[in-house]
Design a protein that fits this description.
This protein has helices spanning 2-13, 20-28, 33-55, 64-84, 90-102, 105-126, 131-209, 217-241, 246-259, 275-296, 330-341, 374-378; strands spanning 263-268, 300-308, 311-318, 345-350, 356-362. By secondary structure, the protein is of the alpha+beta class. Helix 1 (2-13) packs antiparallel against helix 3 (33-55), helix 6 runs antiparallel to helix 7 and helix 10 (275-296) packs antiparallel against helix 11 (330-341). The chain is elongated, with a radius of gyration of 33 Å.
Length: 379
């Protein structure tokens, strides 16, 4: 279904074939010379507005865009009908599609009803057909509205469901990876950690029992140093595997905020990150969520993660519920230190009238294929 999301807008443009009555009117000569320029301008405006919506307008989140587009196309459809002097339901089908696809079900049904009523009234007002044919034309509009409007609503529901399923699949895969990472860390600690600790203990005991000048003492001390170094590397590896991940922290934040009766909205649009970057962002989400629950008195909270000009940004905002929130604190200072270690910055801004925004920016985004080795990270 990915090709539908990628090329669907071009298939939507194909609905302009419903404008064939415009071409037919020119070819049949039903448009007089004094109306030709207005008719051509109106038809071109109709096609341009719909083309803009298919290619760019549908990306806008505001409900004003689809409403304005559908109403504008309906108005142009009325003009075209009066210029042709014949009722044409085709002109109103595209606005119905825009309304059904661009709005939620409740508003879509309402706007489709408005467009249908406009078409019915215009058909009757045109008065170019006998009353019996007007009735037939009106009766044909209702199933057409149900078909085109309902199909658009169903398509929008299908696309939204598909997006939710993909997000859920990615989240499940991330949780599975986190569980496997925790298992590996636990096994490393239990197996290698215990064995290396025992080797180090035995080596220390051997250096105490052997005389200073005994043969092999230096080798035992070197072995002891190597075992200590290996034990330290195992501990560092385990700590790295146990660092917080974005998926885990976002899920925990959502659960905690909902449990605190705080409405939460999460917008996650970043790709694969380097482990250190992901860990720092996880600490940011954790600390910010804790502050919202404990100190803000907020009713709403929004968490967003995005990539901007090669930077990854994490922003947590809350409405504060008219509670003045303080900017400084041990948690904020700790986040500043963590971000500074990876070249990031922290912006914590309190609104005197209530509300708080915490934004963390990290300048480096790295995929696993270009991740640095542990030795490079220690330099």
């Amino acid at each position: 279904m990915a090709w539908v999301e990628r090329y669907g807008k071009y298939f939507a443009l194909a609905l302009l074939v419903l404008m064939w009555p415009v071409v037919d009117a020119y070819q049949s000569g039903s448009i007089t010379a004094d109306r030709a320029s207005i008719f051509g301008f109106t038809g071109a405006a109709y096609a341009l507005i719909y083309g803009w919506y298919c290619l760019h307008g549908y990306k806008r989140r505001s409900v004003v865009v689809p409403i304005a587009t559908a109403l504008g196309l309906s108005l142009l459809a009325v003009v075209l009908e009066h210029l042709v002097r014949m009722p044409e339901a085709n002109f109103f089908l595209i606005p119905m599609m825009v309304a059904g696809f661009g709005l939620t079900t409740r508003y879509a049904v309402l706007l489709i009803a408005v467009v249908t009523a406009t078409s019915i009234v215009d058909t009757i007002a045109t008065g170019s057909l006998p009353p019996s044919r007007n009735i037939v034309q009106v009766l044909l509009l209702i199933p057409a509205a149900l078909l085109f409007g309902g199909a658009a609503i169903a398509l929008r529901y299908l696309m939204n469901t598909l997006g939710e399923l993909r997000s859920a699949r990615a989240e499940i895969a991330q949780h599975a990876a986190d569980r496997e990472r925790s298992r590996i860390a636990r096994d490393l600690h239990d197996l290698l950690g215990h064995s290396l600790s025992l080797i180090t203990l035995k080596g220390e005991l051997a250096t105490r029992l052997l005389p200073e000048e005994a043969a092999g003492t230096n080798e035992i001390r070197e072995m002891l140093a190597l075992s200590r170094d290996a034990l330290q590397q195992v501990r560092e590896a385990v700590s790295g595997y146990r660092k917080p991940t974005l998926a885990t922290e976002l899920t925990a934040a959502q659960i905690a905020l909902k449990a605190a009766a705080i409405e939460v909205a999460i917008d996650q649009s970043v790709g694969v990150l380097e482990r250190e970057t992901e860990a720092v962002l996880g600490w940011v989400i954790r600390e910010a969520t804790t502050n919202v629950i404990r100190h803000s008195g907020a009713k709403k909270c929004r968490i967003s993660l995005s990539e901007v000009d090669g930077h990854v940004e994490a922003e947590v905002t809350n409405d504060g519920w008219r509670v003045v929130q303080h900017q400084t604190g041990n948690g904020i200072r700790g986040l500043e230190e963590r971000l500074a270690a990876v070249g990031g910055t922290l912006d914590a801004t309190a609104d005197p009238h209530g509300g708080f925004r915490l934004r963390a920016t990290i300048p480096e985004i790295m995929a696993p294929s270009v991740m640095r080795t542990p030795s490079e990270l220690r330099r």
